[in-house]
Amino acid sequence: MQFQSDKPIYLQIIDIVMEKILTGEWQIGEKILSVREFAGSVEVNPNTVMRAYDKLQQDEIIFNKRGLGLFVSDNALQTILKEKKENFIQIEAPKFFQTAKLLKITEEELIELYKSN
């Protein structure tokens, strides 16, 4: 798997897990890949995956059932949506709109682009 060089790999793994939950690939209450399985699938050190999984557990997106493995938390979807929306509104949207203004893209063009996607 190709990772971005400007962002720590464990944060990119967190994004991958969140995306799997958002898209429904990993359902609420479902067991997820073990640290070793995930590390093998993305070809990274298991310690990197463990760091990502630890953060996801702290954020209550996944949880550990002792002896059984890691599972998607009941509130994972709401937690992820809240975090991603806040990030989009505070960081990504302002950059997007600044670029749109610089390029003199009209509201109508933006609305049409939004509707077409």
UniProtKB/TrEMBL annotation:
Stated name of the protein: GntR family transcriptional regulator
A Pfam match: GntR
Source species: Sphingobacterium cellulitidis
Domain of life: Bacteria
Domain HTH gntR-type: 7-75
Record's keyword annotation contains DNA-binding: yes
PANTHER family: GNTR-FAMILY TRANSCRIPTIONAL REGULATOR, HTH-TYPE TRANSCRIPTIONAL REPRESSOR YTRA
GO molecular function: DNA binding; DNA-binding transcription factor activity
Key words, A-Z: DNA-binding, Transcription, Transcription regulation
